[in-house]
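[Backbone geometry]
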Amino acid sequence: MNYKKWFLKNAESLSGKTVAVTGSTGGLGVWLCRHLASLGADLVLLNRSKAKTYEQINDLKSDFPNIKTEFIPCDLSDIKSVKAATDALIKNCPDYLIHNAGAYSIPRYITDCGFDNVFMINFLSPYYITKTLLPYLEQKSGRVVAVGSIAHNYSKTNPKNIDFRTVKAASKAYGNAKRHLMLSFYKLFEDENGVSLSVVHPGITFTNITAHYPKVIFAIIKHPMKIVFMRPKKAALCILRGLFEKTEYSFWIGPRLFDVWGLPNKKKLKTFDKFEADLVFKTAEECYGKVLDFLTR
């Protein structure tokens, strides 16, 4: 089945629905928003850059004149910015919340609330937004879509170094954060009845998150990468599918072939056990508590 046939068969109208998306100006986010706009959704875009967001909004409106959009400033490495964005979402709660933003190989530092910034961006801030927003999403019978990654295989959680601040390898730090995101969300939603969860992943695709190599090396490999891996337009379908299909505990939606190529497919993960999931959830709740303490100082 090709891309167009899949879209016609699986995508449903989102007219009258509001979808909040973090990281909408990146490669996957751009195409995800275009897919959402084509289905009639109203969009709330949570990004750091005001200029890039309004450029994206103008592009969307040129092709989808009736689209309704809202920009909410949100820097996922800054918990005060995250709180302000969450407060704004509470006032006009969306029907769907998509945690699409991610950061891979970036300069590392400890944030104001005491956690590694990669850990904050990829896990703790999304967890804070979701847990805080849950009572309001319940009123909408909403859904949370968490974008995981095959990088969660690259590391095992370490209770003595939860945010991997002493781990230099970008793949392991990113993988650890995504592992926390996925496992904590599985547990958070295990007994949740009012709001559903979909854990998804796009496989490997050519976006800014893969453009972390030295310039000379990147110039050599970028064209083969475009050929070998899925384009963002197609990879974004795995995220889109999460709006129409929930995932049970330990299941995720991603490319059907080796988690890298192909159209969306739901499968059961065998990369963690219940003991680790319980441990990660306990860590997530402790981190959430520390964030609340920081915000009330």
Q: What stands out?
A: Residues 117-139 form the longest helix (23 residues). The longest strand covers residues 261-268.
